Amino acid sequence: MSLAPKDEHEAQVQFALERGIPAISAVMGTRRLPFPSNVFDAVHCARCRVPWHIEGGMLLLELNRLLRPGGFFVWSATPVYQELPEDVEIWGGLRRWRDDGAEMVKLTKAMCWEMVSKTSDTVDQVGLVTFRKPADNACYMKRRQKEPPLCEPSDDPNAACSQVGVYGKPAPEDFVADQEHWRKVVRNSYLTGMGIDWKTVRNVMDMRAVYGGFAAALRDMSVWVMNVVTINSPDTLPVIYERGLFGIYHDWCESFSTYPRSYDLLHADHLFSKLKSRCEVLPVIVEVDRILRPNGKLIVRDDKETVDEIKGVVRSLQWEVRMTVSKNREAMLCARKTTWRPTEAEAR
């Protein structure tokens, strides 16, 4: 998963998505990044001028939260970053890096991270340091000073692995049923019955992913799927990462951190009806319109009343409604965003 800061580098998200690489715009600050704990095997920061040591190491502790036990942090910087006076305390000057000098060394030692390698490229002098997070708590328990502190026992990163599944069945049965459901839906409906040219689809988003069954059903295709777990849903995002898929937490009553017109297909299974108690459908569809590329597709499965409302909104945007199907108060919609834009007179 690639992240670009919300500043002059924000367009890097567009570059990544154009290459078919998962990416969001994000910022490391006073709030956690929208990912569960212990899910990434490696974190890489390139041309990295981040002051990891400030505020008690808060930023580096966030990386520690995201890394799996035994995971790696790969940190590189160009020569100018290594030698600027304001950065020397961060890098310590890679060529002069000692075991007891720089603030970063002190912090990583206190966090029980092991420095496994440090190099400086002989051609462009780019410095590279690799740290490894411990695989167990043995080092933490031996520390004389308990700073930074261990997480509280109540801060459970595996809360998603409960005994009862999202749909009310025991978790293993629930998971298997979800996977089989989406395999059938994709095979029997999405791939052939909607007129979607899947050769033109690279970037896909499942706006309400649950276990990631929709993304798993597309595993043999040349696409990647951003799995979104909504903030008012059961926390199944750790399960999605355990499947080797990508995902993020998000509140669809707010905008999504991505460059405009960056997804080829959005999929929403019973999302909009669940949002109605918190926000209106219209602004969410406006956000969908912002995210989708021209000629991008939206697939909605929901109750008939909600689907009819969405159909009215997308038609007002001059979208092409490809297909609508309804049965037993449930309905499905497939719509294509067009290249239409209002004229000056229409926009008044």
Automatic annotation (TrEMBL):
Entry membrane topology: Single-pass membrane protein; Single-pass type II membrane protein
One record GO biological process: methylation
Any matching Pfam family: Methyltransf_29
EC number: 2.1.1.-
Gene Ontology MF terms in the entry: methyltransferase activity
Name of the top EC class for this enzyme: transferase
Keywords: Glycoprotein, Methyltransferase, Signal-anchor, Transferase, Transmembrane
InterPro entries: Put_SAM_MeTrfase, SAM-dependent_MTases_sf
Localization in the cell: Endomembrane system; Membrane
Keyword Glycoprotein: yes
Domain of life: Eukaryota
One Gene Ontology cellular component annotation held by this UniProt entry: membrane
Family: Belongs to the methyltransferase superfamily.
Listed PANTHER family: PROTEIN, PUTATIVE, EXPRESSED-RELATED, SAM-DEPENDENT METHYLTRANSFERASE
Stated name of the protein: Methyltransferase
Organism lineage string: Eukaryota, Viridiplantae, Streptophyta, Embryophyta, Tracheophyta
